[in-house]
Design brief:
By secondary structure, the protein is mainly β. The chain folds into two domains: about 1-125; about 145-235, Sandwich (Immunoglobulin-like). About 5% of the residues lie in helices and about 50% in strands. The chain has one helix and 18 strands. The chain has one helix at about 195-200; strands spanning about 1-5, 10-15, 20-30, 35-40, 45, 50-55, 65-75, 80-85, 90-100, 105-110, 115-120, 125, 145-155, 160-165, 180, 205, 215-225, 230-235. Strands 1, 3, 4, 5, 7, 10, 11 and 12 form an eight-stranded antiparallel β-sheet that branches. Strand 8 (about 80-85) and strand 9 form a beta hairpin. It is elongated.
Amino acid sequence: MILLSNTSSLITLITGGAQAIAVKVDYVDALSSGTYQPGSPPNQIIAGAGTTTIVGSPASGAERNCRFMAFRNTDASVTCQVTVEQTDGSVVIPLISVPLQAGYTLFYDAESIGFYVVDSNGNTRGVQGLQGTAGTNGTNGTNAGNTGTATINFGAAPGSNTATVAVTGQTTILSTSTCQAFLMEDTSSSYTAADHQYAALFIAFTCSVPTAGVGFNIDATAVDAFSGSFTVRWIWT
């Protein structure tokens, strides 16, 4: 993800020519109230060399998480050099710079591989070349019946960046078992299903090495302080 964490931080696009570049952006704001607000600025057509702000600064006390960007060169024949930069208000960091051919689109997707290019035929390309052919599918694993939910609590406001909950009573678990924890669109005493959906963008879950015949701990680490409790799902095999 690309995080804008203060009122001076933003993302800009530098275009090197007069070719029309179509721009689409989506983001999620983590507000000071502890809630999340999805956003998408108006789509743009940039036709001219220069620097254009494509993701503006968040409000005071909020953080803006850029999740998706798309830049399409709509020109029929001419390549345009495009550069994406991020600044915190004092230091400018070039994120990527590519010669975007006519009909090609530069994407950024926080849920997949970050930046990549799709050509005019719909083929996905890395920044340096054509994507290779897909490998064969792996074999299916066995069904796992060891699942459940737990309540993980970050405490009262102003909350904390970390929280832990113990999963016990797992009499058949081994010290070599593999454990996972994650959020789904559940509800809790503190948050709605939508809150759980957006919180998954900002909270990472890890599990301790299991204690045989007992269970394991779920540890949560957030990019910002949370308060209250979330319903977290777990599974072990």
